Every structure is written in C-alpha cells, then in structure tokens.
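tokens incoming
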C-alpha cells in the first residue's frame, strides 16, 4: 500500500547532522520532490534528516519548503505560529473537512475561537467525561471472550467512536455513530490521497472522483451534526440541562457576548470528534500491538493495574496513580505520533534558529522523524516505556516529543486523548491481553497515522 511501512524500519544513521549538505535532495522539474514524498512521506522525511541535515530545503511542486529536525527549531516554530509564521494551507480536502475551525483559523478569528472552545476541554471538564470513557470500555470488555480473535483497530475505533459521540453529542446521539464513522473513514482516505498527489495543486473548482467522494462524505457529516445541534437546541429551549461538549459550545460566548455560528459549531464539532476518536483509536491500536511484542512491558502494566486497581474499574483520579500506564501511552505516541507533520508559512521578517526565512517559505517539522532520531532516543524504534521514568539515565530533550503539536496552537483535545487512552488501557488491560503473535501492521499516513491493514489479535487472560 503506498506510504505503508512495516514494524521494523530501516535504522537511522548514528552520525550527527550538522546542517544542510548539498542544498537538499534533487528535484524534478515542476514536480520538485513530490514523487518521493507521495511514494512514502515518512521515509522521505527520514531521508532528508539523515542524508541532508537538520535544515533541508526541498519542494512540493512549486512550493518552497524547509524541513527542520532539531527539537529547538521545532519548539521555536511551534511557539511562533501566528507571528511571524502562519498555518499552512494544506489543500482543498483538508479545508472541506475542517472548515475554518480552530485548527486552521488565523489571527483574531483564531484567538476568538480558541477562547470559546478551550474551556470545554480543560482538565475539570475532562474529569466529567472519564466515567463515560470507563463505562464504554467496560461494556466492550463484557462482550469479549477468552480465545476470541478480534480486529483490534476496528474494536478500538468502535469504542472511541462511542465515547466521542456520547461526550461530544450526548447519549441520545448514539444511533448516529454508523453514518458519522463511514463518512469520516472516507474523508480520511481522500484527504491522505490528495495530500500526496497532484490533486493538491489543482484549483478548488476542478472536480475529480476523489473530490466527489470527499464532498459526499462531508455532506453526511454536515447533515448528522446539524441534526444533533437541532436536538440540543430543542432540549435547551425545553429547559433540559446537558453536560456534553456540544452543549458547552452552544453556551459559549465571546468577549462581546456573541455565540459560535452554526457553521462554527459544525467546524469545532468535527475538530473535537477527530481529536477524541481518530487520534485515540489509532493510539490504542498501536499500543496493543506494541505491548503484544514486549512481554516485560506488558507484565509491568499488569502488575501496576493489579496493585492500584485490584480488579475495580478506574476513575479519573486513578490516572495520576498509573505512571507506567501513562508511559505506555507516551511511548506509543513517540513511535506512532498521530500528527505526523506540522508546517507553517513564514511571513516578512521571519527567522528560525537565528536564520532568515524568506517570506512565503513553508517550514515543516515531522514528529515522526524527530521522535525516531537516535540522538534524542537511543534505539529509537524499540518500544521502551521506561524512557519516561522519572529517573531515566538519559532525559528527553525539550521539544523532542510533540505528538500533539505545541505552543499556542497545540491540540486542544490532548488532555482528553491522553486520559481516554490510559483509562481504556486500564479497563481492558486488567481483563485481557491482546496477543497479535507475529502479525504486525505497518502505517498509512492519512490525516493521522493509520494501520495499513487489519490488526488482529487473540484475547488472552493476562
């Protein structure tokens, strides 16, 4: 499958990367480096880092780009987005799906939306959603049977979707899971295909089969979300009180007393849904696959869950009491960061690492590439949650781990996703070990890093 990569990737070189060597990779006329990027963007970023240095010029069609691979440059870029860098335009499909939500908005519009959305996902609010996370995970565990063979990704996707629908839209929207799921799957595929192909450079009015499928998927999402919004408005008019994310968004007011518009509610609902469902389902899928191949790490997880929980269901307060469980999640996000690339466009006078960046240049950094650099993570492809022990012998440099981005535009749903992943691991991990045997999926870089094939496992007693 294009872009897919197996469990064991080519090792990165042990040499340091002092800077650009030879002006970056060779470019094709008109296409630039698009063919290599489209073939396998993850390998392409690693090759830029290993073969050309930490500051590498390259091009995506006619667009001038630079890839930066030093953690301090990544941190500076993430902290500077808004000024003197602005978010990149990532294509027609990306805009169709996310609209002008907080992820892509800029300037005063972005500041207003962030102020309206952020309170809905603060730790105090995430605490109120923890019970739903645990309840849904426990229901799934109750349906599983010892010795059964399951599609891990499908199971995790179904679970996190139920959690997302209930916490975002409320329990009465549960029947709308199937059309939302199917539409999101189509949108994810088409977004990934456009981003790595020539369609990225076509004007919005050009129609292609992929764009037709994208429009149809987005139309389904729009219809389903509009239906749920109307239900919430009717319930509110009748005096009903609700405690889901959409209700918080409906009640939010900006500094002038203005609410989110209908279109803004749609855009932010899609953004939060992706953060609560797509990101966490893939993280959990990778975590089970990694744990299956790491018996010592799995044994330590079992010991912690037995010691802290003793067979009971976890609560939000247990999140702080499960350090190894959190480290399993953190190490999974290092190896398989859901956000695998980040880019921003330089404005006039922009600098990075003390270097002038010409206006209009897209500066990219890749969590996938930085997270797999042996300078920051010895034996980078090995699954070692102990890297994150408080007394680890080699501390991880600042900004070397950024699976949710960083700076002012860091993912607002990061706390939600981290708590959800840890609590689901705790619920399911007490009762089952997911044994993948020798099977091992590779990755497909779409909107998030997805498995390139079904991840199957046999349910065992831990």
């Amino acid at each position: 499958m294009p872009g897919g990569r197996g469990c064991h990737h080519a090792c990165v070189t042990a040499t340091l990367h002092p800077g650009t060597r030879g002006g970056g990779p060779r470019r094709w006329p008109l296409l630039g480096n698009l063919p290599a990027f489209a073939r396998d963007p993850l390998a392409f970023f690693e090759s830029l880092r290993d073969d050309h240095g930490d500051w590498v010029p390259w091009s995506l069609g006619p667009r001038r780009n630079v890839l930066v691979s030093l953690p301090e440059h990544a941190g500076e870029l993430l902290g500077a987005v808004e000024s003197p860098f602005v978010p990149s335009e990532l294509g027609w499909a990306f805009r169709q799906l996310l609209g002008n939500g907080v992820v892509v908005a800029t300037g005063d519009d972005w500041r207003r939306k962030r102020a309206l959305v952020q309170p809905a996902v603060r730790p105090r609010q995430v605490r109120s959603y923890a019970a739903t996370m645990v309840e849904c995970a426990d229901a799934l565990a109750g349906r599983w049977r010892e010795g059964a063979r399951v599609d891990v990704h499908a199971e995790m996707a179904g679970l996190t979707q139920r959690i997302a629908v209930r916490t975002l839209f409320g329990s009465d929207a549960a029947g709308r899971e199937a059309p939302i799921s199917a539409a999101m799957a189509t949108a994810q595929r088409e977004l990934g295909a456009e981003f790595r192909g020539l369609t990225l450079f076509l004007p919005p009015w050009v129609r292609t089969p992929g764009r037709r499928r994208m429009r149809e998927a987005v139309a389904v999402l729009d219809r389903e979300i509009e239906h749920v919004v109307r239900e919430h408005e009717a319930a509110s008019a009748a005096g009903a009180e609700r405690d889901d994310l959409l209700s918080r968004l409906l009640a939010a007011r900006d500094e002038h007393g203005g609410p989110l518009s209908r279109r803004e509610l749609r855009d932010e609902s899609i953004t939060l849904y992706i953060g609560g469902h797509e990101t966490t389902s893939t993280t959990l899928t990778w975590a089970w696959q990694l744990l299956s191949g790491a018996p010592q790490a799995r044994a330590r997880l079992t010991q912690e869950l037995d010691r802290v929980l003793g067979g009971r269901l976890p609560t939000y307060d247990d999140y702080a009491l499960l350090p190894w469980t959190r480290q399993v999640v953190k190490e999974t996000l290092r190896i398989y960061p859901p956000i695998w690339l980040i880019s921003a466009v330089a404005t006039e006078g922009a600098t990075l690492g003390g270097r002038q960046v010409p206006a209009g240049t897209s500066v990219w950094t890749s969590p996938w590439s930085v997270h797999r650099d042996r300078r920051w993570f010895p034996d980078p492809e090995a699954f070692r949650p102990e890297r994150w022990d408080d007394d680890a012998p080699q501390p991880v440099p600042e900004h070397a781990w950024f699976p949710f981005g960083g700076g002012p535009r860091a993912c607002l749903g990061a706390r939600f996703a981290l708590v959800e992943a840890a609590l689901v691991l705790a619920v399911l991990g007490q009762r089952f070990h997911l044994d993948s045997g020798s099977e091992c999926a590779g990755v497909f870089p779409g909107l998030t890093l997805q498995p390139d094939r079904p991840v199957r496992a046999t349910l065992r007693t831990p």
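note: Residues 262-292 form the longest helix (31 residues).
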